[in-house]
């Protein structure tokens, strides 16, 4: 087994050229390997556990808000059937949990809550959506959350408009199924069998569409639709497979009833919530690795970035921002990372260092802009932003060693002060002035 695993690892991470089909298979194996590593290390499992806790606290308030919105459209009676579908793997216990949740929701009286109670109700719901966004941002290696104003608008659209759109889609599907036009089409020879197969595939397609929507909308970054669909397809397959497996587990879980007694239903419900969130996060991780091939290496997030590499990365980011500025464009960290062949987290940390030094700014949409004119920013300032970050503790040195390093750094700074970001972005570096001598490149 050890030799088999070693051979598999060499094949997955090998650099030898392969035929096109085998190369695609190897890329898929790399993605699955990295997702499995994230699961084994707890990156996804801990997030799923946190979401289970938040869901238990926020489920009833979320459904209460959705119930109030759906009641205005006359489709509030569809909440319990939808819950039954989601909890179908729990068998009879799922029907019991759905009935209890709906009972709790119906007992919520917004008029009795008052302004403080209503505010707490909305805060609980918003905290759930915020927790979900943070989990997806962690999966996508995004360090910045949405701005407060955008967060408010996006969260309200999810909480208020999302249920209406979801139930409208379900109602439209039911209407089409019951239409006379569809009945006439089914009478045609050979069409009835195709429609039956399409009806069996429809739940899978709806789940995949819902997952793809979540993967595109929730993370605070641009997610390509193709990557979202790849992650949603895998997550949808896992969802249906886990539903069948969990239903079999519930049937054989009589011993849990004997051990936990009345708490057995709650325990099974929590386990299913954990599995459901884990599947959703696994699909998001697959979409992330599919969109970012620069992360498809076992050590790309673990290898330390040396001082020289940090200085080169800072200069590359500053020059790219200036070049985009002069070209009438704007760039983002997630766009720079693939071009540099580095993880977006490293680029984001470099942007933060440059922003702390007052060299790079951000627009409201997250795009990078020069914080001041590039023709007034010397390369020495970019170099110092990552070489001497603010707040670093002083390192004592014996006088001879300190003098040697200070002289070398002063020589490098004199050379770098002759170049500006505009020069590098538009013209290229000018020759060194006489008398400066050779210095280390950045």
From TrEMBL:
Protein's cellular compartments: Cell membrane
Bilayer topology annotation: Multi-pass membrane protein
UniProt xrefs under Gene3D superfamilies: Winged helix-like DNA-binding domain superfamily/Winged helix DNA-binding domain
Any Gene Ontology CC annotation: plasma membrane
Source species: Inmirania thermothiophila
Primary subcellular site in the record, as a coarse category: membrane
Taxonomy, superkingdom: Bacteria
Transmembrane stretches, start-end: 51-73, 110-132, 152-178, 198-218, 230-252, 258-289
PANTHER family xrefs: INNER MEMBRANE PROTEIN YHJD (PTHR30213), UPF0761 MEMBRANE PROTEIN YIHY (PTHR30213:SF0)
Keyword terms: Cell membrane, Membrane, Transmembrane, Transmembrane helix
UniProt name for this protein: Membrane protein
InterPro entries hit by this protein: Virul_fac_BrkB, WH-like_DNA-bd_sf, WH_DNA-bd_sf
């Amino acid at each position: 087994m050890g030799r088999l695993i070693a051979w598999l690892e060499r094949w997955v991470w090998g650099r030898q050229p392969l035929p096109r089909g085998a190369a695609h298979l190897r890329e898929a194996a790399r993605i699955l390997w990295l997702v499995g590593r994230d699961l084994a290390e707890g990156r996804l499992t801990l997030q799923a556990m946190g979401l289970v806790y938040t869901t238990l606290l926020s489920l009833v308030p979320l459904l209460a808000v959705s119930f109030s919105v759906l009641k205005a459209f006359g489709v509030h009676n569809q909440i319990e059937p939808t819950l039954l579908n989601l909890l179908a793997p729990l068998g009879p216990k799922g029907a019991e949990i759905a009935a209890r949740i709906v009972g709790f929701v119906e007992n919520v009286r917004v008029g009795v809550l008052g302004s403080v109670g209503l505010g707490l109700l909305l805060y609980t719901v918003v905290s759930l959506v915020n927790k979900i966004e943070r989990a997806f941002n962690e999966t996508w290696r995004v360090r910045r959350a949405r701005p407060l104003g955008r967060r408010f608008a996006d969260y309200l659209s999810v909480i208020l408009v999302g249920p209406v759109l979801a139930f409208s889609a379900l109602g439209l599907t039911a209407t089409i199924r019951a239409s006379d036009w569809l009945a006439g089409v089914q009478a045609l020879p050979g069409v009835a069998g195709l429609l039956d197969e399409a009806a069996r595939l429809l739940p899978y397609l709806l789940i995949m569409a819902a997952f793809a929507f979540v993967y595109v909308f929730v993370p605070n970054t641009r997610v390509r639709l193709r990557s979202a669909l790849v992650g949603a397809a895998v997550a949808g397959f896992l969802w249906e497979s886990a539903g069948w497996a969990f239903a079999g587990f519930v049937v054989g879980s009589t011993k849990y009833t004997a051990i936990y007694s009345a708490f057995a239903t709650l325990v099974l419900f929590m386990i299913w919530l954990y599995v459901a969130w884990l599947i959703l996060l696994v699909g998001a991780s697959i979409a992330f690795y599919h969109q970012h091939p620069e992360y498809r290496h076992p050590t790309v997030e673990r290898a330390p970035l040396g001082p020289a590499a940090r200085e080169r990365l800072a200069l590359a980011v500053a020059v790219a921002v200036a070049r985009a500025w002069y070209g009438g464009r704007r760039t983002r960290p997630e766009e720079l990372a693939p071009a540099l062949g580095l993880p977006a987290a490293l680029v984001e940390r470099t942007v933060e260092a440059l922003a702390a030094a007052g060299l790079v700014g951000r627009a409201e949409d997250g795009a990078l802009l020069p914080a001041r004119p590039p023709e007034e920013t010397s390369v020495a300032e970019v170099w110092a932003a990552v070489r001497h970050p603010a707040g670093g503790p002083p390192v004592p040195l014996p006088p001879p060693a300190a003098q040697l390093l200070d002289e070398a750094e002063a020589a490098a700074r004199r050379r770098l002060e002759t170049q500006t970001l505009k020069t590098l972005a538009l013209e290229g570096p000018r020759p060194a002035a006489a008398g400066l001598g050779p210095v280390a490149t950045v």
